């Protein structure tokens, strides 16, 4: 777990992000950080602004104002492709997998390798796919299994592997254990721990406090478009986190966020 007294400079730094849609202000000057080799949980009730913040970081929305810095370099994302090219990969709840395609085809979808005569280099892609799954300790029947044949936990793992395959600096996971059984949840949480061990900055958006306590190093809490707390998970209880989300208790860090 992260030690608040020895944390290095965060890999991803977001400062004073504001975003409105017409007359509706969704983000009111939000700060956010994610460190390399850490899992940062982004928490808040529905309508807190979590999804909008993540979409600004992922290039889906363009902030009205504020800055996004990655490894000390200011970023200006206009499309998701811009964020991906900079090293930010996002795995949304819908996973963006094609059920009728096999695992190899899904991992390389849109980034296929070509061999001679413009044919797909299936052998190279299959070897890379197997190596990536082995490194992440993802167990599936075969890389040639279609996604439709896989369990929910396996599908989530493949979606994460698809993101990690391209050597990102930051991986954002949107509700990664939602709608999964207990065994499948453990499979995904173990994978998140391995991403941390690999030195990635991992951001997890979740409503599951149990997941937060198991895998997160830091919890950043939003409420009504503002950041209201940044908590070192090892130093707080689940009740503290819930209190921050609901507003039952205010935390001193809120003034700095």
Helix content: 25-40%
Return the string of H and E elements.
EEEHEEHEHHHEHEHEEH
Taken from the alpha-carbon principal axes, the silhouette is globular
Number of strands: 10
CATH-wise, what's the superfamily of the largest domain? Answer: P-loop containing nucleotide triphosphate hydrolases
- Report Rg: 19 Å
User: How many H/I helical runs?
Assistant: 8
Average pLDDT confidence is: 93
Poorly predicted ranges (pLDDT <50, ≥5 residues)?
1-7
CATH topology of the largest domain: the name is Rossmann fold
Number of self-contained structural domains: 2
How are the strands of the biggest sheet laid out side by side? 6-7-8-3-9-10
Major sheet size, sense and barrel closure: 6 strands, mixed
What is the oligomer described by this structure? single chain
Strand content: 15-25%
User: Class of the largest domain, according to the CATH hierarchy?
Assistant: Alpha Beta
Helix vs. strand class: alpha/beta
CATH architecture of the largest domain: 3-Layer(aba) Sandwich
Distance between the termini: 22 Å
Could you describe the 3D structure shown?
With 257 residues, the chain is α/β, with parallel strands linked by helices. The chain has 2 domains: 1-87 and 169-257, Rossmann fold, CATH 3.40.50.300; 101-167, no CATH class. The protein has helices at 50-57, 80-86, 103-107, 122-135, 152-164, 182-197, 209-215, 238-246, and strands at 12-21, 24-34, 38-43, 65-70, 73-75, 88-91, 170-174, 201-205, 218-223, 226-232. The strands form 2 sheets. Strands 6-7-8-3-9-10 form a 6-stranded mixed beta sheet, with helices on both faces. The chain has a 4-stranded antiparallel beta sheet with strand order 2-1-4-5, covered by helices on one side.
């Amino acid at each position: 777990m992260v030690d608040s007294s020895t944390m290095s400079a965060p890999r991803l730094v977001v400062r004073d992000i504001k975003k409105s849609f017409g007359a509706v202000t969704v983000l009111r000057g939000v700060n956010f950080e994610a460190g390399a080799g850490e899992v940062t949980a982004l928490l808040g009730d529905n309508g807190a602004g979590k999804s909008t913040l993540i979409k600004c970081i992922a290039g889906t929305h363009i902030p009205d104002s504020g800055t996004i810095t990655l490894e000390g370099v200011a970023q200006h994302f206009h499309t998701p492709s811009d964020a991906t090219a900079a090293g930010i990969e996002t795995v949304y709840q819908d996973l963006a997998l094609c059920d009728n395609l096999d695992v190899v085809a899904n991992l390389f979808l849109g980034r296929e390798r070509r061999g001679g005569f413009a044919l797909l280099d299936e052998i190279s892609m299959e070897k890379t796919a197997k190596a990536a799954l082995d490194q992440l300790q993802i167990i599936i029947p075969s890389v040639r299994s279609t996604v439709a044949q896989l369990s929910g936990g396996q599908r989530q793992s493949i979606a994460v592997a698809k993101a990690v395959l391209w050597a990102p600096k930051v991986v954002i996971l949107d509700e990664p254990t939602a709608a999964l059984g207990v065994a499948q949840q453990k499979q995904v949480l173990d994978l998140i721990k391995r991403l941390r061990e690999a030195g990635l900055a991992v951001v997890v958006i979740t409503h599951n406090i149990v997941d937060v306590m198991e895998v997160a190093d830091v919890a950043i809490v939003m409420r009504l478009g503002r950041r209201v707390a940044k908590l070192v998970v090892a130093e707080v209880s689940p009740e503290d986190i819930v209190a921050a989300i609901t507003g039952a208790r205010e935390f001193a860090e809120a003034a700095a966020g």
